[in-house]
Amino acid sequence: MTDSAMATEQVVARGSRSNGTLYRGDPGMWSWVAHRITGVLTFFFLFAHVLDTALVRVSPNAYDQVIETYKSPIVNLLEVGLVGAVLYHALNGIRVMLVDFWAKGPKYQKPMLWTLLVVWVLVMVPGAYFMMVRTVSEMFGGS
Amino acid sequence: MTLALDKPRSPRRPAARRSNFELASWLFMRISGIALIVLVLGHLFIMNILDGGVHRINFAFVAGRWSSPFWQLWDLSMLWLAEIHGGNGLRTVINDYARKDTTRFWLKVMLYVSMVLILALGTYVIFTFDATIPAD
């Protein structure tokens, strides 16, 4: 076979997911997709966040007015999403480093993914509660 | 079932490596990542969850925090590491998905301009913060 003919090869995918030779379509691939999406979203938030914080150099009232929008119900919900995105990115970043630097990392990449998702849920449930409790109680007339 | 996969081995040898920039970038993402886990998760916990979360944040709250050199240094390190970590991540994303050289070039120009703007503005704000500025 010539080099160009070999450039794209038909590979039999049978059984390859279970023995770890094929990453495409594996949960590991989706963890990489989610890592990119959460990273890009966080970068755009950082841009906005430095601009809103810079208002402390304009005047206390200008800053307080913009910060009030962070306390509205919809933006409060977006904050839960931001914390969830950053937390996933941090936990998966630890997993990436373990895959890179720990000898058994590649072997355990999948169990590590399930572990980080469990940790994410365990942190996000109380986290979302404390972030939303005041907004929800104010919306539904509680004191 | 069969899948068409690109061969991992390139048919031609790549040009001789001229710099270790991509290696440094790869290493920086991991080292800054470890620091950012502490800096950013700590920041999010304090600002969004602890003690009433976002509802207690206002100018006076910021003034109280930035009266301490510890939190000034925390926020300054977080700003620089997060902006460069995120900017380098976006550089990789642009390299992966931009299909034309001119698109790639202009997206990177926009990225680098925004990074310089955010780093300069953020650093300026932390160093020149004035708690006695007039209210309006």
How do the helices and strands line up, and which of them pair or pack?
The complex is a heterodimer of chains A (143) and B (136).
Chain A: H1 3-7, E1 8-12, H2 27-53, H3 60-70, H4 73-101, H5 109-139
Helix pairs in contact in A: 2-4, 4-5
Chain B: E1 2-6, H1 21-49, H2 59-65, H3 69-97, H4 101-128
Structural overview:
- The complex is a heterodimer of chains A (143) and B (136).
- Chain A has 143 residues and is mainly alpha-helical.
- Chain A has one domain: 3 helical TM bundles of succinate and fumarate reductases (Up-down Bundle).
- Chain A has five helices and one strand.
- In chain A, α2 crosses α4.
- The radius of gyration of chain A is 22 Å and the shape is elongated.
- Chain B has one domain: 3 helical TM bundles of succinate and fumarate reductases, CATH 1.20.1300.10.
- Chain B has four helices and one strand.
- With 136 residues, chain B is mainly alpha-helical.
- In chain B, α1 packs across α3 and α3 runs antiparallel to α4.
- The interface between A and B is large, with 49 and 48 residues.
- β1 of chain A pairs antiparallel with β1 of chain B, so a sheet runs across the interface.
- Chain B: This is Succinate dehydrogenase hydrophobic membrane anchor protein.
- Chain B: Its main location: membrane.
- Chain B: Keywords: Heme, Iron, Membrane, Metal-binding, Transmembrane, Transmembrane helix.
- Chain B: GO terms for molecular function: metal ion binding.
Identify low-pLDDT runs of chain A.
Answer: 1-15
Quaternary structure type = heterodimer
Strands of chain A, count: 1
How much strand content do the residues of chain A show? Answer: under 5%
Low-confidence stretches of chain B: none
How many domains make up the 3D coordinates of chain A? 1
Shape of chain A: elongated
Ends apart, CA distance between termini of chain A: 77 Å
Return the average pLDDT of chain A rounded to an integer. Answer: 86
Main β-sheet of chain B, in a few words? none
DSSP helix count of chain A? 5
Question: What is the helix/strand order of chain A?
Answer: HEHHHH
- The dominant shape of chain B is elongated
CATH H-level superfamily of chain B: Fumarate reductase/succinate dehydrogenase, transmembrane subunit
CATH superfamily of chain A: Fumarate reductase/succinate dehydrogenase, transmembrane subunit
Distance between the termini of chain B: 68 Å
Largest sheet of chain A, if any? none
Provide the CATH top-level class of chain B.
Mainly Alpha
Helix content of chain B: 55-70%
Organism (chain A): Actinokineospora spheciospongiae
Keywords (chain A): Heme, Iron, Membrane, Metal-binding, Transmembrane, Transmembrane helix
Transmembrane segments (chain A): 29-51, 72-91, 111-131
Subcellular location (chain A): Membrane
